[in-house]
Amino acid sequence: MARQRNTTRLAGEASAEAAATQDRPTEDTSVDPAAGAFFDCDNTIMQGAAIFYLGRGLYKRKFFSTRELARFAWQQAYFRLHGAENAGHMADAKESALSIVQGHRAADLEAICEDVFDEFMAEKIWPGTRALVQMHLEAGQRVWLVTAAPQEAARVIAARLGMTGALGTVAETIDGVYTGRLVGEPLHGPAKAEAVKALAAREDLDLARCAAYSDSANDIPMLSLVGYPYVINPDSELRRHARRNGWRVRDFRTGRKAAKVGIPAAAGLGAAAGGTAAAVAIYRNRHR
After folding, report:
1. pTM recorded for the entire structure
2. Which pLDDT tens digit goes with each residue over 109-145?
3. Which residue ranges form the domains of the chain, and what is each CATH number?
């Protein structure tokens, strides 16, 4: 048990350290530096799972076999049908991904991730969640993506959405080449909470003034860290937990509000109810 806690903490700290070294916008527009927001990726930011889209992109570039692609496809189909993560599938995806990238250069994978975003991910982004990201940014707050996907993919997704940075799973490299091992463990469940805590310490964030968004009960540890937890497209367990704790819920899959819904506002700024719909409309108008 103690060893598991140590690898979880190591994964979180490694992810926070990697996030700290990412390029930031040259112009710092933060007017509320102690507050921020953390967004889960899979089924919160985008429909489906980023690692499986990455798998499709790597297959297209002949990184692995048709049989391995079929396994990725089955896991992705399960995720989309059930709207929930399966721990066995996540572990299998991790092992597959590590064996696939072993011996390849990290810089090459990040370049591939740029193309994979355009090919598979861009059209899967939920407009409502993207509008929430923009609301925080326009309120002068910093925003991070938090995902079990590789750090290289996480950085690309975050940059494309205009986020401050990303926390993702860190794979070990030597001289820029993947060894086939992780630093700690996948950034999943409690490891996400450890990463958020480590990043908050580095960035002087007050977690009581921060917001977090997720679809999965696996992320209850992360959601419980912040003063403003919000639930997006929830699985059944997280929906029940949110109802018991009075957390706000939004389901962009149906467009219908769940019980105790309030529009997730920039933390502490009191954006009016109905703000999500307005933000979506503004976002679409700006990007036509």
Report:
1. 0.79
2. 899 999 999 999 999 999 999 999 999 999 999 999 9
3. 2-46+124-286 (3.40.50.1000)
